[in-house]
Amino acid sequence: MRLKSGFLAGLLTLATLASFPTLSDTYLVVDKSENSLTYYTHNVKVKTFSVATGRTNEDTPNGVFPVVMLVKNPWYLKKNIPGGTPENPLGVRWIGLEVPGTDGSIYGIHGTNQPDSIGKHASSGCVRMKNEDVTWLYEHVHVGTVVEIVD
């Protein structure tokens, strides 16, 4: 189900959000076909960003997932790269998603040290944003914010 502005969408949003413990006035929609992320508040589109999503359609999972983790300057543990350094592929912010079977540390919305990848199908499954864009988003979401990922 794709969330859209309007009265019907408001009812559908409540039905979708009802399965999560925290109701939120804000939500995000990631459209993999357009490589875009849109921030909504009170069912009004506020801002749309260009993003990078998975190399294949299956890499970035479809569904509705809550934000469960927010990290400033995340470490890239696979290669032990400190947070906040230019070499860090996670950029300056991590917004972790509770995809079933994960804990918010596997799939997320994050910055990148590869800004040329934005707008492309280039990730291993996460949603990449320009560092300045993910910094803005980080300040506008909270644990419990719902993210819908669609084709």
Automatic annotation (TrEMBL):
Pfam families: YkuD. Keywords: Cell shape, Cell wall biogenesis/degradation, Peptidoglycan synthesis, Signal, Transferase. Residues 1-24 form the signal peptide. Residues 26-150 form the L,D-TPase catalytic domain. Pathway: Cell wall biogenesis; peptidoglycan biosynthesis. SUPFAM superfamilies: L,D-transpeptidase catalytic domain-like. CDD domains: YkuD_like. The active site is at H110 (proton donor/acceptor), C126 (nucleophile). This is L,D-transpeptidase. It comes from Tumebacillus amylolyticus.
